[in-house]
């Protein structure tokens, strides 16, 4: 099919990726119709029930810029300069993410962000239908059935091309798998999460440092907190689903969702492991008992499109665990890559194939890095080896700014392909581990020898400043 001829597309899901893609394609003259399972968040309030706020980084900002909505989003974002590590003894340590305030991440409210994007999509000419859940698809006849969950009534539509931005549990993906036997597998983490809230203080201000992503690392589990612009924090507690033996206290198990069930049990857990956070969360027991735990997983899918008739992107194609704060950033990057592939190729099947070829290896790379980052966040950020490696990383970055670019910088502040960031990060990690082995500080490092290793193993990265 020649896409120039029709320029008509049906999008499933008006979440983060769906609404951003609707803007980008409408701006290019495509007739975009979007079907969303939930009600209109501008009328009913937001019914997401998960991850109230998100870390926005350069990849996501670039996509918002391309859609002309960056300023509107940034007006409500809160800057996070680094990780604020909360020790068990109440100590605090800020680990900056970058060199200065040009290298920071931003906390954005999912509902506000989604509403900003939806408004812009409609302004750009997209039509959004709410209360329409994709149910089944007849790809050969070009018919899809949508259900209104309020009255269970079916609504049938005709389509030329479906693009699925319907999230990790994508109904379109299920239909594509059924039709074309795609190879699909979700690996669930044996950890889940629950969200809690730190309200504003008595003076209406933030109760803890607002310009940081707070982490309480505790080995096999952890808490994090991100600021919201209404002076609250969203706290996320990540725990194993089942307890494993606690090596520090033989005969006991680490806490888990299996062992911490009641409000009283979660209070006891916080009193023991997160004592400085406990007084900040007045509704701890209620939050715990009313919010269901969220599952975390990585989706592996071997194909993302069915010729020119259907395509998946965002979480629907490559859901990942949230520990690099990149799921949305990656989904936004997908939207720009797809719009550009559609600019380049007149035939949709070719555009979809080019998009898949470009994005699949990169999605796989960030999925792998997100899994690795969980171990780093919960178990390594307060570890002396890790801190020494970070110190050496900063020193090498200063000495070789175009070759030795820290892992976090490549993923978060740059837009080089994730696969390149992964490959270079692995080399750098080996260099850092080898150079710090057996050392307590950087005194005695053979800098000229290290410079030779860096020059040999890390080619210049043009994008680095
Ligand atoms: C705890 C947690 C923390 C996270 N933190 C970050 C972070 O800090 N930074 C970051 O970049 N990412 C983060 N993420 C990842 C991020 O939330 C996702 O990657 C992002 O939401 C993906 O966008 P999407 O549009 O693909 O899917 P979604 O945002 O899930 O949107 C899917 C949309 O499709 C709709 N839908 C679903 N099924 C149907 C259907 N059958 N028919 C019609 N519509 C349907 C849904 O209602 C929804 O509106 C986090 C995720 C979690 C779970």
From TrEMBL:
<protein>
    <recommendedName>
        <fullName>Kynurenine 3-monooxygenase</fullName>
        <ecNumber>1.14.13.9</ecNumber>
    </recommendedName>
</protein>
<keyword id="KW-0662">Pyridine nucleotide biosynthesis</keyword>
<comment type="pathway">
    <text>Cofactor biosynthesis; NAD(+) biosynthesis; quinolinate from L-kynurenine: step 1/3.</text>
</comment>
<dbReference type="GO" id="GO:0006569">
    <property type="term" value="P:L-tryptophan catabolic process"/>
</dbReference>
<dbReference type="GO" id="GO:0043420">
    <property type="term" value="P:anthranilate metabolic process"/>
</dbReference>
<keyword id="KW-0285">Flavoprotein</keyword>
<comment type="function">
    <text>Catalyzes the hydroxylation of L-kynurenine (L-Kyn) to form 3-hydroxy-L-kynurenine (L-3OHKyn). Required for synthesis of quinolinic acid.</text>
</comment>
<keyword id="KW-0560">Oxidoreductase</keyword>
<dbReference type="GO" id="GO:0071949">
    <property type="term" value="F:FAD binding"/>
</dbReference>
<dbReference type="GO" id="GO:0009435">
    <property type="term" value="P:NAD+ biosynthetic process"/>
</dbReference>
<dbReference type="GO" id="GO:0019805">
    <property type="term" value="P:quinolinate biosynthetic process"/>
</dbReference>
<dbReference type="InterPro" id="IPR027545">
    <property type="entry name" value="Kynurenine_monooxygenase"/>
</dbReference>
<dbReference type="InterPro" id="IPR002938">
    <property type="entry name" value="FAD-bd"/>
</dbReference>
<keyword id="KW-0521">NADP</keyword>
<comment type="similarity">
    <text>Belongs to the aromatic-ring hydroxylase family. KMO subfamily.</text>
</comment>
<keyword id="KW-0503">Monooxygenase</keyword>
<dbReference type="Pfam" id="PF01494">
    <property type="entry name" value="FAD_binding_3"/>
</dbReference>
<dbReference type="InterPro" id="IPR036188">
    <property type="entry name" value="FAD/NAD-bd_sf"/>
</dbReference>
<keyword id="KW-0274">FAD</keyword>
<dbReference type="GO" id="GO:0004502">
    <property type="term" value="F:kynurenine 3-monooxygenase activity"/>
</dbReference>
<feature type="domain" description="FAD-binding">
    <location>
        <begin position="300"/>
        <end position="363"/>
    </location>
</feature>
<dbReference type="GO" id="GO:0070189">
    <property type="term" value="P:kynurenine metabolic process"/>
</dbReference>
<feature type="domain" description="FAD-binding">
    <location>
        <begin position="11"/>
        <end position="176"/>
    </location>
</feature>
């Amino acid at each position: 099919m020649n896409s120039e001829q029709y320029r008509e597309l049906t999008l499933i899901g008006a979440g983060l990726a769906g609404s951003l893609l609707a803007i980008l394609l409408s701006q290019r003259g495509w007739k975009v119709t979007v079907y969303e399972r939930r009600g209109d968040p501008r009328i009913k309030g937001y019914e997401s029930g998960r991850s109230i706020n998100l870390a926005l980084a350069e990849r996501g900002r670039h996509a918002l810029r391309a859609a002309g909505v960056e300023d509107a989003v940034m007006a409500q974002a809160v800057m996070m300069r680094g990780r604020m590590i909360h020790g068990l003894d109440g100590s605090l340590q800020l680990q900056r993410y970058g060199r200065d305030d040009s290298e920071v991440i931003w906390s954005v409210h999912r509902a506000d962000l989604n509403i900003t994007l939806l408004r812009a999509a409609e302004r750009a000419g997209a039509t959004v239908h709410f209360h329409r859940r994709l149910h089944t698809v007849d790809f050969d006849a070009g018919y899809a059935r949508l259900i209104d969950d309020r009255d269970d009534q079916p609504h049938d539509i005709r389509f030329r091309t479906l693009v699925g931005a319907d999230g990790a549990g994508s109904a379109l993906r299920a239909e594509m798998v059924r039709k074309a036997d795609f190879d699909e597998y979700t690996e669930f983490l044996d950890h889940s999460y629950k969200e809690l809230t730190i309200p504003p203080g008595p003076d209406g201000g933030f109760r803890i440092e607002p310009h940081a992503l707070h982490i309480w690392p505790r080995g096999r589990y952890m808490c994090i907190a991100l600021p919201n612009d209404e002076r609250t924090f969203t706290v996320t507690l990540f725990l194993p689903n089942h307890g494993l033996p606690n090596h520090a206290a033989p005969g006991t198990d680490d806490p888990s969702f299996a062992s911490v069930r009641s409000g009283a049990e979660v209070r006891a857990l916080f009193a023991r492991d997160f004592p400085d956070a406990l007084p900040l969360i007045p509704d701890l027991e209620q939050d715990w008992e009313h919010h269901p735990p969220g599952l975390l997983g990585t989706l592996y899918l071997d194909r993302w499109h069915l010729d020119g008739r259907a395509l998946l992107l965002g979480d629907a194609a490559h859901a990942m665990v949230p520990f690099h704060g990149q799921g949305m950033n990656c989904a936004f990057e997908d939207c720009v890559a797809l719009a550009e592939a559609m600019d380049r190729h007149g035939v949709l099947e070719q555009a979809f194939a080019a998009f898949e070829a470009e994005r699949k290896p990169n999605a796989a790379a960030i999925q792998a890095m997100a899994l690795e980052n969980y171990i780093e966040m919960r178990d390594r950020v307060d570890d002396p080896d890790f801190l020494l490696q970070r110190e050496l990383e900063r020193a090498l970055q200063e000495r070789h700014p175009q070759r030795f670019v820290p892992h976090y910088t490549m993923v978060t502040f740059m837009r080089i392909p994730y696969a390149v960031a992964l490959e270079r990060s692995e080399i750098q990690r080996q260099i850092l581990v080898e150079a710090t082995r057996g050392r307590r500080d950087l005194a005695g490092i053979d800098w000229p020898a290290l410079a030779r290793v860096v020059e040999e193993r890390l080619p210049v990265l043009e994008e680095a400043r």
